[in-house]
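Continuing from yesterday's entry. The apo prediction looked reasonable, so today I'm repeating it with pyridoxal-5'-phosphate included to see how the binding region is handled. Same sequence as before; SMILES copied from the compound registry.
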Amino acid sequence: MFEVLTPLAPDPILGLSVAYNEDSHPQKIDLGVGVYKNEQGHTPILRAVAKAQQKLLATEKSKTYISPQGNQGYIDGMLRLLLSDHSKALLDNRVAAVQAPGGCGALRILAELIVRANKDAKVWVSDPTWANHIPLIGSAGLSIETYPYFDKNTASINFDAMMQTLRQCNKGDVVLLHGCCHNPTGADLTNSQWDHILQVAKEREFVPFLDVAYLGFGDGLDEDAYGIRLLTDNLPEVLIAASCSKNFGLYRERVGLAAIVTKDSANSQVVQGQIQSVARGIYSMPPSYGGALVDLILNDEQLRHEWVSEVDEMRNRMKSLRSMLVDQLAVNGADRDFSFINRQKGMFSYLCITPEQVRDIRTKHSVYFVESSRVNIAGINHNNVEALAKALVDVIQ
Ligand SMILES: Cc1ncc(COP(=O)(O)O)c(C=O)c1O
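Holo prediction written out below.
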């Protein structure tokens, strides 16, 4: 039966990793795959995670299945982290939530839940958006449209065009927004832009779908939650897909959360049953390990404190790498202003150079990143920043 299948084009990011590994250049630079790296180029196990692992090893008594919704301590801890202790939606029991296998798992089951509620719902995503949004949401059968977001010519958000499109959304449409640290551009909405989005969401009655994969990597854990809290405090319905891959460094453990703010607590119970049934039909129940670690961290004062300081460290390191790159570009004679890199947030930046220049920098200087010009800021370090800046200046002049 499978002979009818045709080969697919290689995934651009994974293809880039293969090419990078095969490159023998001694000073090659990898700014492709979106994982945090430290100064030594490693993706470390966080100290709080290592301690939680010891604790879990000493206390876990069984490997029997966990409950269908996942680890309740994890779910509650994550909901408070995202929505805050004072969240009206939480206090009113209006939030249904399940632990999901990664942010991807959360995005997918929420897309399936939307299909159950309204298979004709249109999902609006930013142009550009994270490449995996389209397959994850589209494969559930939903139709996807884009709203303008980033203007490469000005290296900033084209908010007027974005709002113009959102003002045309229909009641029941779903609008996917990056909670913070927009992937791929690093261009984030300001608090006042979130305020405008709330107004339009009220007017048009669309449902925001927040993807939160980098909480804490922008300006801080609470600061980055501004949009999430604003919308969940003021709208009847909001969907949230959160990931612990990056800010807990738990990538391979697949830890995510799918949460749905509903109109009232009765509806929340119905939605809780439905989302669990969606998950049951796909993977039955989530893996336990990563969620158990996050539960231990978020619900223990000392471990939480240690984790928060590690998130601060990662964020501050990435901020300083941004300014180092901007300085090095100027020192090495870039004839363009790259200071927008300092204004972008999180792990990614769009350098706003052309695909030809991206190919040039790869072939001439062994610097690897995707053709959109998205770079993983965490792949920069004190040893490679000068070479990177010189290579960039070489290909853009
Ligand atoms: C914007 C965005 N959403 C969701 C995810 C999902 O992450 P994961 O499934 O690894 O938790 C990612 C990961 O790169 C992402 O960049």
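Comparison notes:
- The chain is about 45% helix and 15% strand.
- The chain has a mean pLDDT of 96.
Will overlay with the apo model tomorrow.
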